User: What shape does this take?
Amino acid sequence: MRITALAGGVGGARFLRGLRAHLDSLDGGPHELTVIANTGDDITLSGLRVCPDVDTLLYTLGGGANEAQGWGRAEETFTVQGELTAYGVGPDWFGLGDKDFGTHIARNYWRGQGLSYSQIIERLAARWGLPEQHVRLLPMTDEPVETHVIVDRDGEQEAIHFQHWWVKERAAIPAQRFVVAGLDRANPAPGVLEAIRTADLIVLPPSNPVVSIGIVLLVPGVRDALRGTTAPVVGVSPIVGGGPVRGHADACLAALDVEVSPQGVASLYADFLDGWLVAPGEGATAEGATAEGAGGYPRDLVVQEAPLLMSSPEAATAMAAATLRLAEAVRR
Amino acid sequence: MRITALAGGVGGARFLRGLRAHLDSLDGGPHELTVIANTGDDITLSGLRVCPDVDTLLYTLGGGANEAQGWGRAEETFTVQGELTAYGVGPDWFGLGDKDFGTHIARNYWRGQGLSYSQIIERLAARWGLPEQHVRLLPMTDEPVETHVIVDRDGEQEAIHFQHWWVKERAAIPAQRFVVAGLDRANPAPGVLEAIRTADLIVLPPSNPVVSIGIVLLVPGVRDALRGTTAPVVGVSPIVGGGPVRGHADACLAALDVEVSPQGVASLYADFLDGWLVAPGEGATAEGATAEGAGGYPRDLVVQEAPLLMSSPEAATAMAAATLRLAEAVRR
Assistant: This one.
């Protein structure tokens, strides 16, 4: 089986680690997993290009992530950052550990050699053992792009980098909209459209629907490929109990005037989504309800329920298993 | 008093720290010290520009050096280097610690902003408190230059980077000659020639006469400025007891067919050197001997003796004091 997933950072990475574990338990393997990562949250810090979602996917799938915080490396130290602060370089609101700096210096070195993001990720992934896991990690595009958030400051519209808004401001300033600098002239990275067109199944992990998966969907050709692929597309709601499981998806949805609910998120994917996994009690009533668009879900969407809190790797594996059961219930 | 020094790395830095301490003990201060640093041993490692002599001067004068090894930072860790090795990036023969990486990342960041080496060193020096010490650190040139060593490999002449020869090969491969890539079109950095022309005294610390001070002397205009300045030029021999106090000056002198002796080194500076401090027993016989060029020293060179082993900061301070006493005995 060949599965292709679109993903952002922590939530996507944890879900995909569970999916990888579940796939390994299935017969007929090895099953192949291709992950198309959001690169809109990339940022240049202290002169080094940092790709938070890509790195979170690498570290999580490779077994090197800080499990408590979800991003960054386990057992980190912060010597380099301390020196940069002493030199007055770099923002103090984005914490990069020493191990993490190793990744960014390696990326910077390879960029200087003229390698593309795709080629760089391939090298990083080799160290993290992704090929041996039958995981292929692709950036959504090889072009450098950056998501910016339009906010109102004293009556003036201002664009601030997504990370500034997300990390420094904790999304507390209302976002008016999101713009992705460079995306209009960006091409999908090599293999991205093919991975969507030739997959047996497309999966949307519970990543942020606006600033993670929503950005991948803006890459020219990606949304059309999802509409046109013969593979079923199933997703997992990132909204549980009226709010995001993690992060600030509520603030992102508010900017789009979309309801903070599994229904609201499903509406963003309505043109290509076939199956939708939601938390217990948040689906429509039992069988057939969705055939009429009941429960506020798009018509013809197959909705199933499962526990959606990834409180442990095992919980994530169970969620992935529920996602594959849902996939069996949908047809294109 | 305004003193200008030409300097390489460890030996120069330790001597200049002693000179700074001695100057602070003199009346009539603050006395100003300008240091013109060799940048020929600069190298790009893992995509980051590393300036070993400049950084050794910064760390030593700023109180952050690893005193045992002379270069690098005190109490270092090597997390970043370990990550780079895991990614297969960077040579394994040049050890960079995490604190040191902070300096290189800051330099890389400022280079990306378009700052010159001079401007970058000024910012680094601010963190290390050099302005408060009345020390001005200048690169010999703002152009990127690199000393290469011509060696014979299986009958073929090959140019290898100075650091490769010095650190990896430990200067064990015979050097045929040294070439400095980029130096023919290099200009002295702002302030370099002025610092030589307007000083009250020029000092040559016991730095390597070939690959440290010798490289500074190759910067267009520097040697002429030393010949033409009204300030006396006094130096300290890096050769004691027939060999270098530290490093591989013997291998460097051999490439130039110059005797490994205080006399041999003095001959390299003969056209501008006025006073020469050598180890006890290595000068000419008592008074007047040098007036006739006795003892193998250039004619008219004033030679004095003093202990030249910088076994402690106090020993370096005493050497610096002896250097200033020597300066009082010479006239231009």
User: Anything to note?
Assistant: The interface with chain B takes residues 46-48, 77, 79-84, 86-90, 98-99, 101-103, 105-106, 108-112, 123-124, 127 of chain A (CB under 8 Å). The longest strand of chain A covers residues 146-153. The mean pLDDT of chain A is 94.
